[in-house]
Amino acid sequence: MSKSAWKQKLVQLTLGVVASGLIADGAVADLYVVRVGDGAAALSSGATATFVEKFADAGGSPLSTIAMPTTASGGNFSLTNSGTATSEGFLSLSGNGQYLLLGGYNATIPTASVATTDSATVNRVVGRINLSTNAIDTTTAFSDSSFTGGNLRSVASSDGVNLWMTGTGSTPSSNGGLRYATLGATTSTAIISTPTNVRVAKIANGQLYISSAAQSVMGVSKVGEGLPTEAGQTATSVTGPAETNSSYDFWFKDADTLYVAGDANAANGGGIQKWTQSGGTWSFQYTLLNSGAATTSVRGLTGAVDVNGNAVLYATTTATSANQLISVIDTSAAATATTIATASANTAFRGLAFVSSGVTPPANNADFNGDNVVDGKDFLVWQRGFGLTGQPNKSTGDANGDGNVNAADLTIWKSKFGGPPAEVAVGAVPEPATLSMIGVALAVFAGVRRRAK
């Protein structure tokens, strides 16, 4: 092989190791799981403390825990959940891979029957967690009729700013369904008229999808085209009205492979259903964790792809307390589950999201006024915005993209003064095994160069 061919091959290998989104042998990835309850008392229908726990993809004990606020502070509101409303508490990863999103209530513990409260007095709240800093933003609280008398179940976002929420509402039911808002808003807009009872929203391949148990759009449905933000959209069923597994969370392995979590019994398809698309038509393949006589019903669902191309699915089981976080590798319909964590007594796992070790944080950008130079004008923007929270972009002085305008942003402005407006975002540091492979590749390449001289 020629020197140039060797060089090209080694570069391909090296970039493949670094850039791959697959779960490589020995690589580290994280599972973020919503947990309700602090274990001190039995779960009830009252407002309950909510946490987001990080696990290694192999499970075990939590690596870290993020506590959602239980009291208002600064611009942030409380975010609690019902301890027994198992249809809420879902978690999603934003389309740009930088934020986790969930919904809840601006309710103090233990506000009774929190899921039936009026949203004018107990606002429904969106929570956003910055994966780079763990900063929590709960400045989005709806004081209108959004989800009044019902629950805000899930939140999807393309970028941490544009938000699509799902849930139920009462008087009328159109206060629920699928609604759109932006970060920091106090009102939201219903973008579909039916169904009005929606479980989970997700964005996959640039398209918005929802799940529902409503007969007309049973299972998973596509909403409009792309990421619609205006009223009058139509939900079109993907899995069809024959879907009977009481669908909740779902995950797209790719554009043509869909997995759907269901909490139905064995006869009605409970477990994890697999659907594939060919020629624009989706077809049911089989249900994982369902023997026909017994099933492991699940509600939360996410996944990844291993080095062999298999879907590695992660799910939360349906027990109301002390439920399980499980994984299953889809090698066939007979694949079995492995328990990788169990919620402690008086707590329960709800939704979950998979985040690979290649998450890229936002680039620092101190060009607040967008004139392509970092100067005194940008300092004035920062000065006027100092102390603001929940900011959707850099226009008020948020240089590091954490949603807050503070001293950290001033430090970035100082370092960038007179220079280019932004620095290139740097991905996560490769794991040691990855670094070793890169080192081997470079050493081999160096040897090839010496022999070629």
Automatic annotation (TrEMBL):
Question: What are the BP-aspect GO terms?
Answer: polysaccharide catabolic process
Query: What is the annotated signal peptide range for this record?
Result: none
* Protein name per UniProt: Ice-binding protein C-terminal domain-containing protein
Task: Name the Gene Ontology molecular function terms of this record.
Answer: hydrolase activity, hydrolyzing O-glycosyl compounds
| Listed SUPFAM superfamilies | Type I dockerin domain
Ice-binding protein C-terminal domain boundaries: 428-451
